[in-house]
Design goal:
The complex is a heterodimer of chains A (about 230) and B (about 220).
Chain A lengths: L2 H6 L6 H45 L5 E7 L5 E3 L9 E6 L5 E11 L4 E9 L4 E9 L9 H4 L1 H4 L5 E2 L14 E3 L9 E3 L5 H24 L9
Parallel strand pairs in A: 8-9
Antiparallel strand pairs in A: 1-2, 1-3, 3-4, 4-5, 5-6, 6-7
Chain B lengths: L7 H9 L12 H6 L4 H24 L9 H23 L1 H7 L10 H9 L6 H31 L1 E2 L2 E2 L14 H38 L1
Antiparallel strand pairs in B: 1-2
Helix pairs in contact in B: 1-7, 3-4, 3-6, 3-7, 4-5, 4-6, 7-8
The chains are: A alpha+beta (about 230), B mainly alpha (about 220).
């Protein structure tokens, strides 16, 4: 390159100008994100809490109030005041006479695309899961998402047997997925044709969660009798 | 010969049709194919992208003399990522159901080459007003294209539009249209239609020019 060409090229910007631009834009962007986060956070938390409350009453239709409990092993379940997020939580539902009607329990597990999060209602009287609602799912629209909408599939959870074995530490019969139309026992989950992996995932998530929670709930039933 | 200066309206219209980001420029194919399985998802994704596009165009254009050329791409990405984060929070605040439906694709707006492309090719060289019109045109054009794909896929794949049933119960859904391959099929069909319309227009223009030159020769 000749001296004339070199001389005609514009001078590169100083390091200061580059730092000024990067840091300036970074500060502006950071402030914007923090402001929007602060403004939207209460609304987002309210939306999530409302969605959870709706889901609790959806899976425990006879309940009119709910109380959150945290499992504090080995001392049993304790009422949780205020903050209702975190691990080891169950939601007890009570009817208008403050009688315990059942418990709503959150469960998560891997689906076809991503993690599926759901909540299910457990009835003591029937020793069964009496309803589920999917809270979080990225299953294929039109196929995998039938786990949320397919009436025949959801019928599985109107009374899905989770009674305990004689030793009271495990389910008498594990929840097992079966092919569509082959369900013969109340603890089996009739799958969905075209959404096999997602429907099997739901059965497995429920089985894992029920194996853990149902013995603990049954063995600490007195903790929930206090009600509201 | 000096090129005639384009008005702001021209900047807006070019994104809608002549330089449509999906049907003509074939940009941002990841969300186009992935989120266009229903009309509602497609429209929401299109509008979210349009918002990020307009806002990033405004900021890039306002700061065009402040950002040195050497660090421009890093700075543009920072600006785009900020507005995507804003959209992410706002959608969560508006509707959790919509947020669930759009999934990971909101975050992926950051790497949509349409947005970085407009920041680099247009906003960094033009005034704020023209950049806003360019962003709006391209954004609305992108949302329109996504809606076209989403509507076709939902109608054929699910027999519904915006979840309202369109056909008799006996209609057999074309499940393949909802699957990823359906995205390619419907995109190909729309590209075919656009190219056919473009060719037809070009032929008409050619005929008109020929007729004019013949008239002039007589």
């Amino acid at each position: 390159m000749s001296h004339a060409e070199l001389a005609s090229r514009p001078a590169p910007p100083s390091t200061w100008h580059m730092y000024r631009a990067m840091v300036g834009v970074g500060v502006f962007c950071g402030l914007l994100i923090v402001s929007v986060y602060q403004v939207t956070l209460p609304v987002i938390e309210r939306n999530k809490a409302e969605a959870l409350q709706e889901a609790i009453f959806h899976v425990l239709p006879n309940a009119s109030t709910s109380t959150t409990y945290r499992l504090d092993e080995p001392n049993g379940f304790k009422v949780l005041e205020g903050e209702s997020h975190g691990e080891q939580l169950v939601y007890a539902g009570y009817d208008a006479n403050e009688e315990l009607v059942g418990l709503a329990v959150e469960a998560r597990g891997m689906g076809y695309q991503d993690v599926i999060g759901l909540i299910y209602g457990y009835s003591f009287a029937e020793e069964a899961i009496v309803g589920i609602q999917v809270l979080e799912s990225k299953e294929t629209p039109g196929l995998g998402d039938k786990i949320e909408t397919d009436p025949a599939f959801l019928q599985n959870f109107e009374r899905l047997d989770v009674s305990l074995a004689d030793n009271l530490s495990e389910l008498a019969n594990p929840i097992v997925p079966v092919k569509h139309g082959e369900k013969t026992h109340p603890w089996e989950v009739d799958g969905i044709t075209g959404a096999t992996i997602s429907s099997v995932a739901i059965a497995n998530i429920l089985d894992r969660s029920a194996q853990y929670w149902v013995p603990r709930i049954r063995n600490n039933l007195r903790d929930f009798q206090g009600g509201e | 010969m000096a090129t005639p200066t384009k008005s702001s309206t021209d900047e807006f219209i070019k994104g809608l049709w002549k330089d449509n980001p999906v049907f003509v420029q074939v940009l941002g194919m990841c969300p186009v194919l992935a989120v266009s399985n229903t009309a509602m998802n497609a429209l929401a994704m299109g509008l979210a992208t349009a918002f990020v596009l307009v806002m990033s165009n405004i900021v890039v254009s306002s700061l065009r003399s402040f950002i040195p050329k050497q660090v421009r791409i890093a700075t543009y990405i920072l600006i785009i990522a900020t507005f995507v984060t804003v959209v992410d929070y706002v959608i969560q605040a508006i509707s959790l159901d919509l947020y669930k439906a759009l999934g990971a694709f909101i975050s992926l707006i950051v790497v949509n080459c349409l947005i970085l492309g407009r920041a680099e090719a247009f906003a960094s060289k033009n005034t704020v007003a023209r950049s806003v019109m360019d962003g709006l045109g391209m954004g609305v054009g992108f949302a329109f294209a996504l809606f076209c794909l989403g509507a076709v896929r939902e109608i054929l794949g699910n027999g519904t539009l915006f979840e309202a049933a369109l056909f008799h119960d006996s209609f057999q859904n074309w499940v393949v249209m909802i699957l990823p391959s359906g995205g390619f099929f419907s995109l190909a069909a729309w590209l075919l239609l656009f190219n056919w319309l473009e060719q037809r227009k070009a032929k008409k223009d050619e005929k008109a020019t020929l007729a004019l030159s013949e008239e002039a020769a007589q």
